[in-house]
Amino acid sequence: MEKIVKVNGMTFVPFIEEAEIRKQVSRVASEIRRDYEGKTPLFLCVLNGAFVFAADLLRETGMNESEISFVRYKSYEGTGSTGNVKQLIGLPDDIEGKDVIIIEDIVDTGLTAEKMVADLREKNPASVGFVTLLHKPVSSKTGFKPDYVAFEIDPRFIIGYGLDLDGKVRNLRDIYVIKED
User: Fold this and answer.
1) Residues assigned a catalytic role
2) What is the pTM of this model?
């Protein structure tokens, strides 16, 4: 039986299932662990969408000495990017000399990603890494390339595993896409 999710009058079907998500989170965590061996990075989770990915990723890295903090930027309304990036919750004050790894749910146009990296670099960290659950390289308006990517996908609207539609359905274990007629 096909899993179907209906929200806001739209029908969604599974796109990436939980087992595959777990597999890729494990792979990305292993790459981060390798690249940051001997370091204690500050993970910077971008709210709201990346919180599920961040929790799973941090547990999977096993980097017990690392820290986590949260920021919030917004560029989406409904099913599309507005192109206007707003910082809603600010960056930690003291990141000078720290290795910072941004955890994002999705990189679409690249505008938010570039803004976050630029904002961080002004605070003189030792390094800035960028990990995303999903990357839509075809949608890029900036050419931004994350350091770590769990999945590259085509430009489709998706929900689940932290990604929402107007604040709903973040709790889904799978990632869903709009059902094509």
Assistant:
1) 108
2) 0.89
